[in-house]
Design goal:
- By secondary structure, this protein is an alpha+beta fold.
- It folds into two domains: about 55 residues, Arc Repressor Mutant, subunit A (Orthogonal Bundle), CATH 1.10.10; about 90 residues, Glutaredoxin.
- Helix content is about 40%, strand content about 10%.
- It has seven helices and four strands; from the N terminus they run H-H-H-H-E-H-H-E-E-E-H.
- It has a four-stranded mixed sheet, with helices on one face.
- A hairpin with a 5-residue loop joins strand 3 and strand 4.
- The longest helix is centred in the last third of the chain and has 15 residues.
- The termini are far apart.
Length: about 170
C-alpha cells in the first residue's frame, strides 16, 4: 500500500527522511513521531505507523497500540472540516448524543463511517472541551486550523453550520 502526503507535490526519499528531522531515535519519541506522520499525511496509515515505529525502534504493535489509544490520532483520512461532538458528562446529559445522530444522518454517514464520501466532513465523538457551561458543545475544526465552538448546540444551528461550510466550498458566500 502506498501512502500519499497531503501535499500534491511528489516527495523525494530525502524529503521523506526529513519528516523526523531533529527527532532522536529513541522509544520515548514515539508519540512525536506519530504526530509528525499524521501532520504529513492527515491521518496515520499503516505504512506511516510502521515508519514511525522503525524510526524510534519499537515494534509495530506498540506503535499501533499508542495510535489507537490516543484520541488525537486518526487511522483513516479525516475530512477537510472535522466535527467533534463532545460526549463528556454535561454534554451527554444535555443531549449531544442526539446531535451526533442528527449530524450523522445530515452528512449521510452510515453507522461506523467517519468521513463523508466527498471528504469534506468527518464526524467524531470527543471528550470534554472544558466549556461545560455551554453544553451541549460541538466543535468544528476548519482547514485553516481555527475552530468554531458551537455552544448550546441544536439541530437548527448545526444544520446552518454545515450549509455554511458547504456553500463556502462551492464558492458561495458565507
Amino acid at each position: 500500500m502506498s501512502i500519499k502526503p497531503r501535499s500534491k507535490e511528489p516527495k523525494t526519499p530525502l524529503e521523506e527522511n526529513n519528516m523526523f528531522r531533529g527527532l532522536k531515535r529513541a522509544p520515548h519519541n514515539l508519540i512525536e513521531a506519530l504526530r509528525r506522520v499524521q501532520a504529513r499525511y492527515g491521518y496515520l496509515p499503516p505504512e506511516g505507523i510502521k515508519q514511525a515505529a522503525e524510526y524510534v525502534g519499537v515494534p509495530f504493535s506498540q506503535a499501533y497500540s499508542v495510535a489507537t489509544f490516543y484520541h488525537q490520532y486518526s487511522l483513516e483520512p479525516v475530512g477537510k472540516y472535522r466535527i467533534l461532538v463532545c460526549m463528556g458528562t454535561a454534554c451527554h446529559l444535555r443531549g449531544n448524543d442526539l446531535n451526533f445522530e442528527f449530524l450523522r444522518m445530515l452528512l449521510g454517514l452510515k453507522e461506523g463511517q467517519k468521513t463523508t464520501k466527498d471528504g469534506l466532513f468527518s464526524l467524531e465523538v470527543a471528550r470534554c472541551f472544558g466549556c461545560c457551561g455551554l453544553a451541549p458543545v460541538v466543535v468544528i475544526e476548519k482547514p485553516d486550523g481555527t475552530r468554531q465552538i458551537i455552544g448550546n448546540a441544536n439541530a437548527r444551528v448545526l444544520r446552518a453550520a454545515i450549509i455554511k461550510y458547504r456553500r463556502q466550498e462551492a464558492g458561495g458566500n458565507e
